[in-house]
Amino acid sequence: MGTTFDESAIDDALSELAAGEKVWAQTPLRGRRELLDDIHARTARYAEDWVAAARIVKRLDADSPLVGEEWMSGPLTILQATAALSATLTALEEGRSPLDGVALAEAPGERVAVPILPLDIYDKLLLSGFHGEVWLRQGVDADTARRRAGLAQREPAATGGIGAVLGAGNIMSIPPLDVLYELYAHNRVVALKLNPITDPMFTVFEMVFAPLIELGVLRIVLGGADVGGYLVGHPSVAHVHMTGSANTHDAIVWGVGEEAARRRADQQPRLDKPISSELGGVSPTIVVPGEWSDADLRYQAEHVATQRLHNGGYNCIAAQAVVLSASWPLKDKFLAELRDAIARAPERPAYYPGSDTRVESALAAYPDAERLGGGRVLVDELPHTGTPLLRTEYFSPVLGVVELPYAGGEFLQRAVDFANDELAGTLGANVLADPATIRKLGIAFDRAIERLRYGAVAVNAWTGLAFLTPRASWGAFPGHTLDDVQSGIGVVHNAFLLDDVERTVVTGPFRPAPRSVVRGELALSPKPPWFVTNTTAGVTGRKLAEFYADTNPARLPSLFLSAMRG
Questions:
Q1: Which one, out of 294, 326, 419, 512, has a CA that is 20 to 30 A from the CA of 550?
Q2: Are 219 and 16 in contact (CB under 8 A)?
Q3: In 452-536, where does DSSP find H-type helix?
């Protein structure tokens, strides 16, 4: 049977990239930095077109506050990423390490911690009370970290061939971010194959990334799985990077059915080239018991609802398992607030293919689950092991609750063990704990965070913040293999271009302003604009993108006003 697409078009694109690789090898650091600055300017110019196209994909009304998600996870993310990468290229161009002037710290386990948030006055103003670090692998010292920062841009002429990127279909900035990482971290020119869901973004991507296309270092192709299969198997492609599910990864690497079983047994992958990946999993939110006020319970319930329902629940990093102490006196009140927060969140179309089927699968597995409207499902009192919700990424608005029979510090340690041992994947984990409890637990709390085997850990924040922070690393915890890929292999984003990355850790204020100030937290941030219950998220998201387009301080007053109204 013949193919249903034009193979010659793919062949021609790869031939053009082979020529473009030679051009890229001859492009000096200054030229590469100027390309980033040009893309930054073009992202600002076409930001409104970007969001309009994303609204088509997501089927959102123009006046919905949920459009703020598209501003923040779209143009804003690319504006920040290109600016951060440009700063890294500037340092290398001047013969410095990207980490020169950065005060490295020590993380638990004698690791080097690279601060990524806040790094400038605008971080401190716009994300007051939020902090972030990239932890490097044990055994890597500060001098080595500084020396290796810059990755492939330390030898720009040593190119790495053609990289095929299979783009994600859920967050519009993922394909562009992956393109930039292939080019700048690995010195590979890129054939980007869009997920068909994101085809409406094609023209915008062409306009924003025209400098890379004109240079011959990027080609964007459309099509289904047959096009992707032809592309990754092409002899001209040296490396593959994908974002998606572990099932898709395994089909690419091993094939399907009997072929996959045979190849696994013989350790003979179908894919004959290296592959890196960012996959999903079952992300936990561990709720550490403490003395919370009614306002705390309500706010953190909205926080957990956001972790599940942001982007309709179609995030690789979406929380799927809430882990509670069965003996926490406030457990029932918290669950009541969580049900209310989920029910109050704005309804939206189930735009991602297969969502309804996955929801029905969850309901079939848990016939007593609660239906909370808008296709949302809450499964309470889950077994602690051997149940589908703990091993299956539903990639839909399905949230489970696990109650462990422990209290205090023992609960936290047991919850970490549960997350590490029982849940599929290692992309991200969230921990919610009030400041008094964190102080009371002391070093035991730090040790618990260290023991979480996840590529991103968020304390009183959502791991989605790590995705949005340009110098954070993004990917699974190190150590997965093609045989047991879980949440993937390798990292992306990482605008410092750090080597030897282990994880990113972000922390946030337990309470929003002004309650944070009243209760003694040094944080002025109101309810974050990425909360699904934030009523001004659409306006705030747009204003954030406009500010990061030119960092004009005159834009800040109206931005702050919109954020406070949320």
A1: 512
A2: yes
A3: 464-468, 515-518
Reduced to 3 states (helix: H, G, I; strand: E, B; else coil), residue 28 is coil
Can you give the pLDDT of all 566 residues of the chain as single tens digits? Answer: 456 789 999 999 999 999 999 999 999 999 999 999 999 999 999 999 999 999 999 999 999 999 999 999 999 999 999 999 999 999 999 999 999 999 999 999 999 999 999 999 999 999 999 999 999 999 999 999 999 999 999 999 999 999 999 999 999 999 999 999 999 999 999 999 999 999 999 999 999 999 999 999 999 999 999 999 999 999 999 999 999 999 999 999 999 999 999 999 999 999 999 999 999 999 999 999 999 999 999 999 999 999 999 999 999 999 999 999 999 999 999 999 999 999 999 999 999 999 999 999 999 999 999 999 889 999 999 999 999 999 999 999 999 999 999 999 999 999 999 999 999 999 999 999 999 999 999 999 999 999 999 999 999 999 999 999 999 999 999 999 999 999 999 999 999 999 999 999 999 999 998 888 777 787 889 999 999 999 999 999 999 999 999 999 999 999 999 999 98
Residue 460 to residue 455: CA distance in whole angstroms: 17
Give the list of residues 6+ apart from residue 158 with CB closer than 8 angstroms, or none: 25, 152, 187
Q: Is 325 helix (H, G, I), strand (E, B) or coil?
A: strand
Tokens 């700063």 appear where? 87
Count CB atoms within 10 A of the CB of residue 444: 14
Q: Torsions phi, psi of 231, nearest 5?
A: -65, -50
According to DSSP, the residues that pair with 277 across neighbouring strands are 242, 489
pTM of the model: 0.97
Exposure letters 299-319 (e unless 16+ CB within 10 A, then b): bbbbbbbbbbbbbbbbbbbbb
Question: Within a 10 A sphere around the Cβ of 415, how many other Cβ atoms?
Answer: 24
* Distance (Å, whole) CA 90 – CA 420: 40
